[in-house]
Amino acid sequence: MNSRILKLMFITAGLSVIITHSAVQAASPEDGWVTDVLGAPFEQRTFEMDPDYEGEVFITLVRSLVNPEEAAARAVLYVHGFNDYFFQTEMAGRFNAEGIDFYAVDLRKYGRSWRSHQKITNVRDLAEYYADLDKALDYIRGAGAGHIILKGHSTGGLTTTLYAADRYGEGMFEALLLNSPFYDFNAGFFMRRVVIPFISWRGKSNPDKLTPEGAPGFYGASIYAGEEGEWDFDTAWKGSGVRINYGWIRAIRLGHKRVGRGLRLDVPVLVMHSDKTVPENEMNEILFTGDAVLNVAHIKAGARNLQTPDLQLAEIENGMHDLILSRESVRNEAYRVMMEWSRALKPD
């Protein structure tokens, strides 16, 4: 297989990560919350999960509460995307200002939850994350929240969509909020119909085989304060560069196929996306005016396959891939839309 084609596929999809150090912070005490790396008012708590094919597994729940002395009636659980972790403090503050307790989970093998014996981001089936979401949602419900909004970005949007379908009728949460959900690879016809299916097929028997190294994408540089953006984050947990395993590609493709066939959900859904897709072939002003990672047409098509009692789509003009990392006026509009939607859901 032509390695240049594979490299192009991952540059186009904007799916890259570089491991800049091999160890993560030590796990926080399992018997309580400690101050998070983001500082007060953020706290984190680590949960040990059942081991998998790489050994010990952990997840990390991060929270920012409206009132530390008493749980709010409503809460949101944020699920990050690929090559990502929770660092968006402004988002937490916006929800807290609405009287909503904010929680975020760093899924297994991501961010705070990554351990040196694991390949960062490694997964063979997106259902592996279901236990992580179950644990987080059970905790939040047990803490006193009576109404929970599950919020997913990009790959987290794909995962939470599948989770919502597979937890149909179980009352795990009351609404689903999706920020640029990853419903298809942003690649040309040949890549999507030939190359990716072939890699996915190989991934069944050889999930740990790695793709060729890809070139860094410009989307990361457009959001990182150390380069052209305005956001500070740990580049060991959200970086650029690299090699994705075939098992991950298989897991994603199988998820895409399920969305393509249609999914039945039992909660209100808001799907938010940019008004356009922009190329990621150089660093320029265009990167700040659209989605440089996913194809907006794919997001819309996937959303139309969701069978739900209340589906709303919201197009954010000039929104970047992660809408809440867009320029201030743009993200303010994204927040306005999601907060108005969440207010309309507020139980009597």
TrEMBL record:
InterPro entries found in the cross-reference section: AB_hydrolase_fold, Hydrolase_4
Signal peptide extent: 1-26
GO molecular function: hydrolase activity
Serine aminopeptidase S33 domain ranges (all copies): 73-324
Keywords: Hydrolase, Signal
Name by which UniProt lists this protein: Lysophospholipase, alpha-beta hydrolase superfamily
